[in-house]
Amino acid sequence: MKQIHFISGIVITVFISLHLYNHFYSLVGIEKHIDVMDTLRMFYRNLFFEILLLFSILIQIVSGVKLFLIKINSAKNFFEKLQLWSGLYIAFFLVIHLSAVFVGRLFLKLDTNIFFGVAGLNTFPFFLFFIPYYGLAIISFFGHLASIHSMKMNKNMLETSPTKQGYIILFLGVLFSIVILYGLTDGFKGIEIPKEYNVLIGK
After folding, report:
1. Is the pLDDT confidence value at 24 over 60?
2. Cα torsion 24, 29, 32, 33: sign
3. Which of the four pLDDT bands, split at 50, 70 and 90, describes residue 138?
């Protein structure tokens, strides 16, 4: 189960990394963000990759919840606990996020671009939910990587550097989440959402 969880995790990590790379371009502007998104969609918006991704997410959630229940009582140090709780939040986020995307695409007939993703993030009072929702997702992703790095490296090394590196990765995740949220809100000033996306925020 650990091996299956690890392999499916690699597929998801590739997708999330591309997704975060895309969001990083929000710092340059909405048009650049959409240009990069259109390029990346040629890679991950095809039937093969979408089936592979959804299958990997299903495996990751089922195996992850099982591993969480098995290990939650035996987790002792910070990174062992962080791996479990960050993985659980990532599973929760992926279920909600992907469900919303497919509802937007298939039922609302919307282009699930940056405007779809940040409608709530740029609207009061919805941003009170979406800021921690997105921020914790990014931090959890980096936290999960930090935990895996720290524990795997420490198994083969006697020095404490892998643990320190784990904290650095986690810190970078916190910093990166702030940067991404800054970009997705146009410097916390708010992005104007096109009228067709008002259905997402009850207008």
Report:
1. yes
2. positive
3. very high
- Residue 63: which domain range? 2-201
Domain tally for the chain? 1
Residue 193 Ramachandran class (φ > 0 left, ψ -120 to 50 alpha, else beta): beta
CB atoms within 10 A of CB 107: 8
What pLDDT sits at residue 159?
55
> How many angstroms separate the Cα of 73 from the Cα of each of 68, 77, 89, 97, 150?
9, 12, 18, 29, 20
As a three-state string, the secondary structure of 69-108 is: HHHCCCCCCHHHHHHHHHHHHHHHHHHHHHHHHHHHHHCC
Output the six-digit token pair for 23: 């969001």
Give pLDDT, residue 99: 92
